[in-house]
Amino acid sequence: MTDHGAVGPPPMPGPVGGAPQRLRGGVLGMADIAAATMANVGPAMSFFFGFAFLGTAAGIASPLTIVAAGVAVALLGNTLAQFSRAHPSAGSFITFVGKTFGPVSAVTTALLAGLGYIIAMASVIAISGGFVQITLYHYTGVDLPWIIWTLLLTGLSVVLMLRGVVVSTKWAGYFFGVEMLVLVVVSIAALVQHHGSLSADPFLPSHIHHGLSGLAAGFPLAVYLFIGWENSAALAEETQDPRRNVGRAVFLSVAIMTVSYILFSYATVTAFDNDMARLGEARIPFIEVAHDTLGALAFVAYVGGLTSTLGVLISGINSQARLVFNAGREGLLPSFFGYVHPIRRTPNNAIVTFAVTALLIIGGWGLGHLLGSGGGSMNPVVFFTESSSLGAILILLVYLASNIALPLYYRRYRPQEFRTVRHLVLPAIGALAILVPLYYLAKPGQPAPYNWFPYAALAILLLAVGYAALLVRRDPTLAERVGSIVADVD
User: Fold this and answer.
1) pTM of the predicted model, to two decimals?
2) Does the pLDDT value for residue 220 go beyond 90?
3) Does domain 30-481 bear CATH number 3.40.50.620?
């Protein structure tokens, strides 16, 4: 029986014994989850701290690299949309891979996705405080440690999330609206002021730095700008008509983000007069564009960056903690994570554990900096790049597994609906597209600490497989519980 709006009495606790705990169904519309998805992408935060690296790698034609990344993410979006149409679940990728390959793969994916998202989210949590520190110091000269602001903003975000998914999703949407307004206004102002430098060069393949090798090097950086595009799938249980609306939200979000990033990158390159060396040396290129274009009103760019980090904090932890929650509810992870607040129907234990673990990772990483050969405190901007890179490797492995799983799932469970292009060709191309950023994140010869990230990811993968095999051996009923909770079925 499908139930989009009823709440009903609280189910019996426990992911295994008795009825599973459910989130509050049907309280989010397509626009809500699309806004939450784009807030999770965090265009201001991602573009502020990622575009200098992308511009250095790809050169003047970095907007063309963003076009390629947008197409690749849309291919991944097809995989997520097709899975969600057939089997919508708060478990998202974990459920999709597990239903296809069995319980060992489900537990492995739960660990890879959970840890990968926590490590990636740690970069966002750190940069939230770091950006406040940068802003305050620029305008007041006050230089309070960034970790103070990080703890404060994380605490406020968690409180919002614990109040309920509707409240926190609305706030994430508001923050996203502010950052997009700022980004668009600054970009248009920059294009108007530098109209004499307007040209088609940023869209010509001949202007990609080092040709195809430059495109390949910039591609993973461009793809990372979109991380968070999958947010809506984890909100399926709380969404009206998730089989239809999750896919629509994914494609709408990817389309809007692609067009937006093309505008922002083109405006930035133009404002720097196509001087990529100068752009690469800028600490935050878009902030410099705002200062050059708006003068004293450049403060709005800082506001946009701050609201972006807050939006990512709320929407990212909200959705990604639900993956951990569903894994706990189905017994893939400890049942502690499968708890739902009896009134607000929020996965409190998963949310709090997710945030605390990310903070512990920040603390451990900072301690490593203090005790390392170089010594000194950790720079949150540098940590943002380091932590997000390690997290991205684990997340990309999950993306890859999902693309491989889609044709097998439809062949096995829904053969009458199988379509060659939609369920085989597109996910195959998507899998190939994922291999490019995976290679560049894992290739040998990178500077420390990036050179040991592939080994860390491999160790995590092997430990996850070992734990999964042991858990399945101890609990043969696990296979029956993987994907047993469908978002729109009581």
Assistant:
1) 0.90
2) no
3) no
